[in-house]
Amino acid sequence: MTELLGTNRTDDGCSGSDELNAPRAQHRVKVASRSCRLGQLASIAPDRTVTRYSSGFHGRFVESIFLPAGARITVSFAGSVHLLILYQEGSRREGQATISGLSPSTMRSVAGRLTFVPAGHPFSEVCEANSRTRMTFLYLPKEQFAEGANELIAKLHFEDMQAWETASKLYRALESGQQKPLHYLDALSNVLAHELTRADSENSRVAIVCRGGLASWQRRVVSSYIEDHLADHFCLATLARLVRLSPHHFCRAFKRSFGVPPHQYQVMRRVEQAKLLLADRDASVTDVGLALGYSQTSSFSLTFRRITGWSPSEYRREIQQ
Length: 321
Description:
Elements: E1 3-7, H1 17-21, E2 27-30, E3 43-45, E4 51-57, E5 60-67, E6 72-77, E7 82-89, E8 92-99, E9 114-117, E10 123-129, E11 133-140, E12 155-158, H2 161-175, H3 182-197, H4 202-210, H5 216-228, H6 236-242, H7 247-258, H8 262-278, H9 285-291, H10 297-308, H11 312-320
Antiparallel strand pairs: 1-2, 1-4, 3-6, 4-5, 5-11, 6-10, 7-9, 7-11, 8-10, 9-12
Helix pairs in contact: 2-3, 6-7, 8-10
């Protein structure tokens, strides 16, 4: 059974819920077992400006954080688990992120970047959203990183395509509402641990390119084009021309860099954008589907359910409770 966390839920008495609710009194936890122990979640103030939806099992949790344009929040965390933040959508007018021992980051264009906060490291981030923003918080138990614990270092607003793809697989497994086998989650967590402890050097990026992936400028160009044309239909040759490759070479290099073929990547990005749009109560499910290029609500709903495990309406109800 999936453990769900949402605003104004009733508490089923999970052991450790007092510790969880201390910094975030409006959160209540619905869980499968009284024996589960949850690490402290990030504190967001003012909490009324955001929508938070969380789910998880086997000691791992994922939160989707929705922030409307113009809102200003402060995120704080110093928990007993590791925190990995994926900045999914949006931009900011201003902001600053700090982790104890690191120089602050004032980067504004953080979409597609990551922040890693090892357990026990104080973290704070101030964000004033320039547009509707979505972030994903992955809370991971320390025992999953035991092998490389001494190599773990905090990182602010960094790029790592391999870590991003592995983290995306993990959070999609956790938020689907369908409990996955423990060995599958363990495998993803262990791979993610190794990727986060890997030296983030130029040599490692060059090695990735040499193994057949796209260069960093090519990844930026093609991902930006797809983001700007989520609702459009475009052919493989169009993307290949943007990065000066043949369609055959481009398709292989794209999959090596992003983990999926171009069309599947576009569909996944459509669903991620749909999650952001569904947080807006004024937009109907039909409107969201049309905005993302689906002429029929049924085809949009089927795609959304296939990737997330929820129908658009079910997902909206969960995040708005």
